[in-house]
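Q: Here's a chain of 159 amino acids. Please give me its 3D structure as C-alpha cells.
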Amino acid sequence: MEKLIEIYTDGSAKGNPGKGGFGIYLRFGNKVKEISQGYRLTTNNRMELLAVVVALESLKTNEYRIKITSDSKYVIDSITKRWVYNWVKKGFSGKKNEDLWRRYLEVSNKFNIDFVWVKGHNGHFENERCDKLAVDAAESNNLLIDEFYEKTENNSALF
C-alpha cells in the first residue's frame, strides 16, 4: 500500500481585509500535526493560499504522494485548472498574491500532489478542525504582520 501524506488547510479573515489566520492539519499514517498562525491585516484568499504553502514548506521529505484538501475554490481551481501557470507567463499582471503564488510554485515542484476540494462548514472533520485553528489564530494576541499585503496590496492600511 502506497504511503500518503494528507494535508488539510483553511484560511480565515475577519473583515476581509482584517485580522486573519490559517490552519493546517497534517496526517501521515497515525501521526497528526497541526500548524496555525494569525496576522493583523490580510485577506481570506491570502490565508487560504498561505496555509497550503506553509504545509508544503513544513514537510521534511518528498518521497510520498501528497493529498491536499481545501475548501478554497480560489486555491484549488487556480492550481488544478492551471490558471497560475498562465499568470506566471503574463508576469502576474493584475493578479493578487503574487508573492504567495511564487512561494507555492517553488515549493510544490518537488512533490507529487493531488488536490481535493471539499465544501466548507459541512461537517468534514479535518476541514472543521482547520477552520477552528484558523479562526483561533486570527483572534489570538500572537499576530504577525503580512508585510507583502500591507506594503503592496493595501497601502491605505499603513496610514
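Q: Can you summarize the key feature?
A: The mean pLDDT is 94.
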